[in-house]
Amino acid sequence: MFSPSKYYYDTKIINNTIIIAGVGRSGTTLLAETINYDNKFRLMFEPFNKYKVKALSEMNYRLYIPHLNNNIKLKEKYYKILSGDIRNKWVDQYNKKYFCVNRIIKEIRINQNLKWIKINFPEIPIVYIVRHPCAVTLSKLRLNWDDHLFEYIGQIELVNDHLKPYIDIINSAKTAYEKHLIMWCIENLIVLNSFKKEEIFIIFYEYLITDPVKSIKKLYKHLNLNFNNKIIDTLSKSSLQTNPQSAISRAKNIINDWTHYVNDEQKQYTRNILNEFNLDHLYTLDPLPFINENDDLLF
Q1: How far is residue 240's CA from residue 93's CA, in Å, rounded to a whole number?
Q2: In angstroms, rounded to a whole number, what is the distance separating the alpha carbons of residues 151 and 182?
Q3: Residue 197 confidence (pLDDT)
Q4: Would the pLDDT of 237 be above 90?
């Protein structure tokens, strides 16, 4: 039997690409699957993972590209991926489309480059999903993910452009919880500092779960897609990347569940770090975002 993950045709028209980005464990896969509820899109899974995509093997992991970088070879590599001109076992593992005119790129490793992508490929809409830092951090800890802080503070241009005021705070992180929390702050800070409101669509994971119709309708309007109530059914299912130990797998309240596993010391650290990074306008220790989804959260 033919499998679309192996045998498909992609028209490679870059205008038909949508990027779904966010910090790992923020709901990027769930959101991508929700948009692709009717299998209209080729689902490209994390094509900027250098350890899975040979064309990127010589690049730095979580490479930062300054906004004004004009490297032609870099643009060519990104164009090839963003236009769908790539076939890869990893990238296409969840693709179920044979004839691909439209594509969704689901990615967690290019948050620091989203502005550069927008400047160089303005025709591609970018959707960025944000989830509570404690929920994200605990999910990563359960999966024993590396924090990759050194990948960021080791890039001088990134430090100069975004991280210099926070370098002492970053270096003071000791525990795995602290490092992953700071990673959340770094990635979201870069995105929120880089964009104007009309350049990117930001959606909160918590509002996607608690008020899916409103969230998806707004998103579909932004993407010029037709809303269908069948889309909401997708959100009641576990995504392809759901951790077996996650709240959704254990039929728990997926918004509040993390509150049972963060101790008082971690809560205080979270409160302090969000304040230091000026991100406490997004989240506090309440499970829902502190900011209203209709407010302008870009700095």
Answers
A1: 10
A2: 13
A3: 87
A4: no
Q: Spell out the alpha helix ranges (H) of 97-251.
A: 114-120, 133-142, 149-153, 156-158, 167-172, 176-194, 205-210, 212-223, 230-234
DSSP state of 60: P
Q: How far apart are CA 298 and CA 183, in angstroms?
A: 19
**Containing H/E element for 271?**
helix 264-276
Q: Which residues contact 14 (CB under 8 A, 6 or more apart)?
A: 79, 82, 83, 84, 121, 123, 124
Residue 46 C-alpha from the chain's centroid: 10
Quote the CA–CA distance of 61 and 150 in Å, as a whole number.
10
Cβ atoms of 270 and 285 closer than 8 Å = yes
Number of H helices, E strands in the chain: 12, 7
Alpha helical stretches, state H, 54-146:
72-82, 114-120, 133-142
pLDDT score of 238 more than 70: no
Closest CA relative to residue 108, chosen from 30, 208, 40, 55 = 30
State residue 19 phi and psi, 5-degree precision: -100, 125
Name which residue leads in pLDDT, 207 or 297. 207
pLDDT value of residue 271? 98
How is residue 12 written in tokens?
Answer: 């490679």
Are 5 and 92 in contact by the 8 Å Cβ rule? The answer is: yes
What is the 3-state composition of the chain as percent helix, strand, coil, each rounded to the nearest 5? 45, 10, 45
**Mean pLDDT score across all residues of the chain:** 92
Whether 251 shows a pLDDT value over 50: the answer reads: no
- The reported pLDDT for the residue numbered 249 is 38
Asked if 124 and 17 touch (Cβ cutoff 8 Å), the reply is yes
Residue 221's CB is within 10 A of a number of other CB atoms, namely: 12
Question: Is the pLDDT score of 276 beyond 90?
Answer: yes
Rounded distance between C-alpha atoms, residue 16 and residue 39, angstroms: 14
